[in-house]
């Protein structure tokens, strides 16, 4: 055990940040969660946490909220783009981490890290094509093929795919850009604006959950038609509402009519993350392994 390499992982979320030390094969031996504050404070907390393992961490994997430049060859690599998170716009995350914790580092988006975790160690393992969809403060998605997240111009924006509104639905979209996109109709802020609270306060078969499932089912149906994935994983705070995975699956099949491949109707076609809430931090640890060119 003393010789087993240890890796560091950081899941930088808009609300909270998780630090972890692990083996990279799903094993977490230490973790610490903080509130995401000003960037300098978060970096200082990271340095303090990882200092204890300073001699033994081989590398660091980071899954970060965005938008952030994750292509190492692109100008501004490792920097946050314009964000409404105070103090973070333009922040050089990779530069600051490299100065505080000088080990090899691999950066992914938060969605990308969770997708890597599910692709290697979770519900998308052994799938030739899968989609990880997270529904929380926003809606994001990553396409996984052969254990890898597909590269992209920036990253997919599945949450902003336009949906058909229910005829009786006159609620304002909470997306600043679109009147009828999935995020504006069914992400956490849209749910809070419609119902005054989060979805887990309502019965799984109630009208509130059925409405959100209807919209997420439309989104999943579009993903099925566009990509034909072998499985869709539904994560995130909203995705974890009791019973929602089942209701969204039913809505997806209904939306597709009889046109869906038979496999889409199987009960495990649309699932919760196998790694649960740890998908992101475990994915960050997998990214750490890849930072030094090793595979789990
Ligand atoms: Zn939108």
Describe the protein.
The protein has 296 residues and is α/β, with parallel strands linked by helices. The protein has two domains: 6-113 and 277-291, Nucleotidyltransferase, domain 5 (2-Layer Sandwich); 125-272, 2-Layer Sandwich (Nucleotidyltransferase, domain 5), CATH 3.30.420. Helices cover 33% and strands 20% of the residues. The chain is built from nine helices and ten strands. It has helices at 39-51, 93-100, 110-121, 182-186, 188-195, 207-227, 236-239, 244-256, 279-291, and strands at 6-12, 16-22, 28-35, 57-64, 105-109, 129-135, 139-145, 148-149, 231-235, 270-271. The strands form two sheets. It has a five-stranded mixed sheet. Strands 8-7-6-9-10 form a five-stranded mixed sheet, with helices on both faces. A hairpin with a 3-residue loop joins strand 6 (129-135) and strand 7 (139-145). Helix 3 packs across helix 9 (279-291) and helix 6 packs across helix 8 (244-256). The radius of gyration is 19 Å and the shape is globular. Zinc ion is lined by residues 160, 175, 177-178, 181, 183-184.
């Amino acid at each position: 055990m003393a010789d087993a390499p240890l890796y560091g992982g950081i899941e930088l979320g808009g609300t909270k940040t998780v630090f972890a030390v692990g083996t990279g094969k799903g094993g977490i031996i230490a973790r610490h969660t903080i509130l995401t504050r000003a960037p300098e404070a978060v970096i200082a907390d990271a340095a303090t946490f990882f200092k204890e393992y300073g001699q033994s961490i081989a590398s660091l994997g980071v899954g970060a909220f965005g938008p952030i430049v994750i292509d190492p060859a692109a100008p501004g690599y490792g920097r946050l783009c314009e964000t409404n998170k105070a103090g973070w716009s333009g922040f050089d995350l990779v530069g600051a981490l490299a100065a505080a914790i000088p080990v090899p580092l691999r950066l992914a988006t938060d969605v990308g890290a969770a997708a890597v975790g599910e692709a290697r160690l979770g519900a998308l393992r052994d799938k030739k094509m899968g989609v990880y969809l997270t529904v929380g403060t926003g809606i994001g998605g990553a396409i996984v093929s052969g254990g890898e997240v597909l590269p992209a111009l920036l990253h997919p924006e599945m949450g902003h795919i336009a949906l058909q509104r229910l005829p009786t639905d006159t609620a304002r979209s909470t997306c600043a850009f679109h009147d009828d996109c999935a995020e504006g109709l069914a992400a956490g802020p849209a749910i809070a604006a419609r119902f005054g609270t989060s979805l887990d306060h309502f019965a799984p078969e109630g009208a509130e959950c059925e409405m959100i499932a209807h919209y997420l089912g439309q989104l999943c149906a579009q993903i099925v038609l566009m990509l034909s994935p072998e499985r869709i994983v539904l994560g995130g705070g909203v995705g974890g509402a009791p019973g929602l995975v089942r209701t969204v699956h039913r809505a997806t099949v209904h939306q597709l009519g009889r046109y869906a491949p038979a496999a889409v109707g199987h009960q495990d076609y649309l699932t919760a993350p196998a790694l649960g809430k740890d998908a992101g931090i475990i994915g960050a640890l997998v990214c750490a392994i890849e930072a030094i060119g090793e595979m789990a």
